[in-house]
Amino acid sequence: MINQEMMRLGNHRSVIRDIFEYGNQRAKIVGRENIFDFSLGNPNVPAPPKVTETLERLAKTDPVALHGYTSAQGSEVCRKAMADDLNRRFGTSYRPENFYMTCGAAASLMITLRALVASACDEVIVFAPYFPEYKMWIESCAGAKCVVIPAQIKDFQIDFATLEARMNENTKALLINSPNNPCGVIYSEETILRLSELLEKKSAQYGHPIYLISDEPYREIVFGGEKVRFIAPAYRNTVVCYSFSKSLSMPGERIGYILVPDCVDNAADVYAAVCGAGRSLGYVCAPSMFQAVAAECVGLTSDISIYETNRKLLLDGLRSFGYTCVAPGGAFYLFPRALEADAGAFCERAKQYDLLLVPGDGFGTPGHFRLAYCVQTETITRALPLFKKLAEDYGV
Q1: Does 13 score more than 80 pLDDT?
Q2: Are residues 15 and 123 in the same domain?
Q3: Of 33, 34, 278, 326, which one has the greatest count of Cβ atoms within 10 A?
Q4: Spatial distance between the Cα atoms of 278 and 115, rounded to a whole number of angstroms
Q5: What is the pLDDT of residues 329-354, one digit of tens each?
Q6: Does residue 355 fall inside a structural domain?
Q7: Structural domain harbouring 20
Q8: Buried b (16+ CB within 10 A) or exposed e, 55-89
Q9: Residue 12 above 80 pLDDT?
């Protein structure tokens, strides 16, 4: 008999992918230009010119070296570039030995979870709203229990009273994402410091480190003078998972890293476990060409002013039509409240106008829906009258 859990996952795609595929089929009927697809967080802004320039130059070099294997944890040149970039920007003192190059953020998170989770009794805490795949990776990949802290709807910061009540001696790690997918909210300095204090207290109380896994693919995508705290220096047992998919607009190239700082308890053992998990999962040697590209382009970002324009246009428009939405400080998502309690039914009704929206249930926050505004600005301009009609259908 085949693995029934894997078969279940294969037969039931994420709701995001289901809606995206629905859009592809619907486009064959009404035309792609008439589909207003806000389902997928696929950057629509081109990669920085240096990415293309670097690719063109590298393609003319020794193809054997360019396309060959690197060290399992990534080339030293690439890992040194990652360390140098963070040290320059955040005043840290990381070394190449602190980094493990990965096939994007998903690989970073699965490797980290597999490395840290030691038994089926271990619990990993996530905070709603959260990326839906977190639960699958925690349970199916790492074999731990996923504990969800409900959303604090007013601002999407952490509900510390609930968090502290849910922590126990089995708490192995907390997984956070700031700026957040799906709501775009950035954790405040106060939130980060309070979280660090709580984790230090609980680690001492339970007699073992509680790790903070910081998922940071949107670290550079921030607006309006907002600041994103680099979390690793705030709490010593932080493991950072990063991807260049969003900052360099390279989601299809699958390149990222894991950072295990020296200050992590038993850092050498944690790093060895990361290497072992990468080996176990078959993720050794991230794509060689894009390790080289990342090494030369680290620290750059795509033109995020386009996202900022889209954010303002969509947020202002929806609010004027009666939608309620917490303003995002980063990433490229809005997470408004649906106009009825059942967000799934609301999103189905939106399809009447070919508005493709993702219900918030899969993100652990019923009653909301996600809009990925990494689309052409013209798409938003043309979609706004349809959002208005949808609101009028509900008597708003």
Answers
A1: no
A2: no
A3: 278
A4: 9
A5: 999 999 999 999 999 999 999 999 99
A6: yes
A7: 4-48+303-393
A8: beebeeeeeeeeeeebeebbbeebbbbbbbbbeee
A9: no
